[in-house]
Amino acid sequence: MEIIVGKTAGFCGGVYNAVKKATEYKANKGNVYCLGELVHNKQVVDKLKDKGIKFIEDLNEVSGGSTVIIRAHGIAKEIYEEAKKKNIELYDLTCPKVLQIHEQVKKYLEEDYFIVLIAHKTHPEVIGTSSFCGDDYFILETTDDIEECVSRIEKSNKKKVVVLAQTTYSIELFELITKLLGDRLKDKYEYLINNTICTATELRQKETSELAKQVDAMIIVGGKHSSNTKKLFDISSEICAKTILIEEASELQGEDFTKYNKVGVMAGASTPQESIEEVVQYLNKS
Ligand code: SF4
Question: Residue 30 — pLDDT band, cuts 50, 70, 90?
């Protein structure tokens, strides 16, 4: 059996930076907390716990003077304000690409645009970004939301509409939604598309699609809550019927890989190299 591991599989720059800096920070400080999962991967979070970082869900869980790490996905502006009031020191590991979107959103708000975020409503990055959007914004998750989005824009007094994306959103779906929305809005509004899908996401999605065409089975490795990993699974499933999503190699037990000539392995942006290597070792032993 030939095993092909995607070149873009594993940590993106933002995740690598957040994990490295959080580890170094903990080594130099005493008590360090992290607000929410630093990245969406259980193995990575467990390792950070072993190193002594404590994970909290709310700033109320720590007292003034504490140090709290901010996750790679970013936080809402109210949390920055709350931390300041409570005298909590923040070590901000929000990915620079997410911070850039916060800045862009603030600029569009000042320029009186209605902001549309093509994104998953409950994702931490989106909760953070939407907090900078003012009152006139809409989170559009699927094509089913287009009508409601148009109606919200019509009810606002805005003359300009800008569309941005969650960094890990599907490129294909982003292109479809911006076209359909544009068809409804272009005659009445100034309509601006700003594709903020991260390059790392784009390359990984493209490679997944290419790899899925070449193999008999695909294994996608990544956190069950990881938005970008789920997207890779969706892309691969459409092309390669035998696509499996796993968090770790042990979940492959019971699968018979001997019947496949070629197996592809791809991994989400928060999947550590060890998890990918464990999968390859498992396949080699099959
Ligand atoms: S996927 Fe992109 S935006 Fe998200 S952490 Fe990685 S580099 Fe940053």
Answer: confident
